[in-house]
Amino acid sequence: xxxxxxxxxxxxxxxxxxxxxxxxxxxxxxxxxxxxxxxxxxxxxxxxxxxxxxxxxxxxxxxxxxxxxxxxxxxxxxxxxxxxxxxxxxxxxxxxxxxxxxxxxxxxxxxxxxxxx
Amino acid sequence: xxxxxxxxxxxxxxxxxxxxxxxxxxxxxxxxxxxxxxxxxxxxxxxxxxxxxxxxxxxxxxxxxxxxxxxxxxxxxxxxxxxxxxxxxxxxxxxxxxxxxxxxxxxxxxxxx
Lengths: 117, 113
Prior knowledge:
The structure holds 2 protein chains of 2 kinds.
Chain A: E1 4-7, E2 10-13, E3 19-25, E4 32-38, E5 44-51, E6 57-58, E7 67-73, E8 76-81, E9 90-97, E10 106-108, E11 112-116
Parallel strand pairs in A: 2-11
Antiparallel strand pairs in A: 1-3, 3-8, 4-5, 4-9, 5-6, 7-8, 9-10, 9-11
Chain B: E1 3-6, E2 11-14, E3 19-21, E4 23-26, E5 33-38, E6 44-50, E7 56-59, E8 62-65, E9 75-77, E10 86-93, E11 101-103, E12 107-112
Parallel strand pairs in B: 2-12
Antiparallel strand pairs in B: 1-4, 3-9, 5-6, 5-10, 7-8, 8-9, 10-11, 10-12
């Protein structure tokens, strides 16, 4: 099946530093990739949608200068949390679509847990 | 707005017990409904789906029926196994955006041997 990986799986950083999270589609070309954020005991919240070669579309309330998304190829999207602060600590999940499903099934990565000290 | 409400966990059952995880939704228009499962250390996987009223989605012994009159999509399994231990998310597709999925908070299921 369609496999999506994320790297790193866990990251701990100091306040004020920037952190990059990678999302890769391993065995397919992803027409669209999505970034979600999940707080403990909360649902996944869509942060942004990105298509290869174009600017990401951010959901309302998500700071695009804070969460930089680069979708440089059909198999790689990156999320950079700039000048991270403790309130940015969360579980970040990416997903990707192949464009082949009639209802655009999303395939999810295993997530990255970010802890900002 | 569009939203999904599912029962809070954790839910703990013995092996071979009957499982129900309740899910209700609020949506304008006609969304598709999904159940996703997240096994420990893995990403979310689509478990089953239903795209219109009265459709029944099924997979791996799990079933859920799209009930428009009660706006529900309850997940059921007749006999659970230890390997079913995971977090289950009910979700709907935004009727106005094909690519947007709205998730419930998830229900953690523990199956005891």
